[in-house]
Amino acid sequence: MLVDVVAAGGALILSGAGLSTESGIPDYRGPTGLARRNGASGVSGSTPMTYQVFTGGAGARRRYWARSHLGWRHIARAVPNDGHRAVAGLSRRGLLAGVITQNVDGLHQAADPVTGRAEVIELHGSLHRVLCLSCGQRTARSDLDRRLAAANPGWDPGSVPVNPDGDAALDDEAVASFRVADCAACGGVLKPDVVFFGENVPPARTRACYDLVEAASALVVLGSSLTVMSGLRYVRHAARLGRPVVIVNQGATRGDAYAAATLDAPLGQTLTALVAAL
Ligand SMILES: [Zn+2]
């Protein structure tokens, strides 16, 4: 079913955290669909940052940026895996209508940096960019990384667990001694250019994704448990339009009832075999 749907051309990919786990970026929901960060991964007592908490106070932002400063090193050195390379291969062959990714790690683009191929929409934004909440300027995270490093000489709490959103576990003492950087242009509050929990995907981006679903011949979900509505709604939309939905994920997903076929299998191996079978 997966081979047939992709070989026919015009398939739209919807990818999630499961596609990046083989790049060493942990899937915090995992095969059970449960949040591992509540203890099981060693990242105890940590819940995802919400937009309301982030914008609500300087203390919360200091905590976020301190943890994220550590997490960024992990994200920045992650490289695409067999799954990303397979998707890039499908794109090069002209078989894809596009890629919608829920991941904020930039690994689809890293696997296929040449522009003009299948469009990649970063549904939840990207950790590779930073947004000023005052002037709206977007800048490279690598620039902010240099500024944060310069503002915090010698600050290094050592090796700590990292979540898929680039967050890292860190004790209060290390957070308290961290210095945050503001917008270099206007002094405003900086936020990673990602959609936090409690924040909506920008409407134009949502519409662009619906357009891709409508133009596609099929929807192929790769490595997402579809727990959040921001991804699940495209599965529902495809099913409503009569487009076949194929889901490849380790573990059950919230979209399984809409799928023409589901495949519970490792992503890298499955997608490499898919490309070989075409
Ligand atoms: Zn600014």
Secondary-structure blueprint:
Elements: H1 2-7, E1 11-15, H2 51-56, H3 58-77, H4 82-92, E2 96-101, H5 107-111, E3 120-122, E4 125-132, E5 138-140, H6 141-151, H7 172-176, E6 190-194, H8 203-215, E7 218-222, H9 229-240, E8 245-248, E9 261-263, H10 267-277
Parallel strand pairs: 1-2, 1-7, 2-3, 7-8, 8-9
Antiparallel strand pairs: 4-5, 4-6
The structure holds zinc ion (ZN).
Zinc ion (ZN) is lined by residues 132, 134-135, 137, 183, 185-186, 188.
Can you characterise this structure?
This protein has 278 residues and is an alpha/beta fold. It is 36% helix and 15% strand. It has helices at residues 2-7, 51-56, 58-77, 82-92, 107-111, 141-151, 172-176, 203-215, 229-240, 267-277; strands at residues 11-15, 96-101, 120-122, 125-132, 138-140, 190-194, 218-222, 245-248, 261-263. It has a six-stranded parallel β-sheet, sandwiched between helices. A three-stranded antiparallel β-sheet has the order 5-4-6. Helix 4 packs parallel to helix 10 and helix 8 (203-215) runs parallel beside helix 9 (229-240). The radius of gyration is 19 Å and the shape is elongated. The two termini are 12 Å apart. Bound molecules: zinc ion. The site of zinc ion has 8 residues, from loops.
